[in-house]
UniProtKB/TrEMBL annotation:
Designated name of the protein: 2,3-bisphosphoglycerate-dependent phosphoglycerate mutase
Keyword Isomerase: yes
UniProtKB keywords: Gluconeogenesis, Glycolysis, Isomerase
Organism of this sequence: Mesorhizobium australicum (strain HAMBI 3006 / LMG 24608 / WSM2073)
Entry's Gene Ontology BP terms: gluconeogenesis; glycolytic process
Transmembrane segments: none
Molecular function per GO: phosphoglycerate mutase activity
Record CDD domains: HP_PGM_like
Residues annotated for substrate binding in this entry: 9-16, 22-23, 61, 88-91, 99, 115-116, 159-160
UniProt xrefs under PROSITE patterns: PG_MUTASE
Amino acid sequence: MSRTLVLVRHGQSEWNLKNLFTGWRDVDLTEQGHAEAKAAGQKLKARGLKFDIAFTSALTRAQKTCQHILDAVGQSDLQTVRDQALNERDYGDLSGLNKDDARQKWGEEQVHVWRRSYDVPPPAGESLKDTGARVWPYYLHDLQPHVLRGGTVLVAAHGNSLRALIMALDGKSGEEIVKLELGTGVPVIYQLNADSTVASKEVLEG
C-alpha cells in the first residue's frame, strides 16, 4: 500500500519575480519557474513515483507546474482535478501591489502583520486561517480518500494553500506555520499511515 501524498509549490511566477502580491490573480510562470517545475518532475521520476491522480488549483501557475511534473514522470494524460479550494490565499486589496509600495501605503508593521500573522486578513482578503477553512475540508473529502486507499497523489498548489495543508498534516500551530518557508518547485513527500497520520515526510531540496 503506497499511501503517498506529494505536495509541490508552483515554480517561480512572473509576479514572484516582480515582488508583487499575487493571490488569486492569474499570472504565468517565469522561465525559471518552468525550469523549477520540470526539475521537480525529474526528482520525482528519479524516485520511480507514478501517480494515480493529480490535484491542482484554478490558477495557471499551479496547473502548468502540475503538467510539467506529469510530463516528466511519463503521465501527461493523468486525470487532473482543478479546484479553487487549492488556490493561493486571496490578498484582497493588496493583490497586484508591489510589496514595497504596500509598506509605504500602510506601514511596514501593518503589512508584516497581514503577511505573517495567522488570523489577520488584509483588507477584502483572506488570512491563512481563512485559507485553511477551504483547504482542510477539500483535503478530507476529495484528496485524503485517494491516499488512504493506497494511492499516490500529486498536489501542485501555492505557498499558503500548502502551508494550511502542512499545518494539519504536521500538527503545527498557527504561530509555527506562518514561519514555514516553502521553496518554489520543491517536492514534499508524505507517507501516511492507515489512520491518516503521517508515517514519514521528506523534502526533496537541492
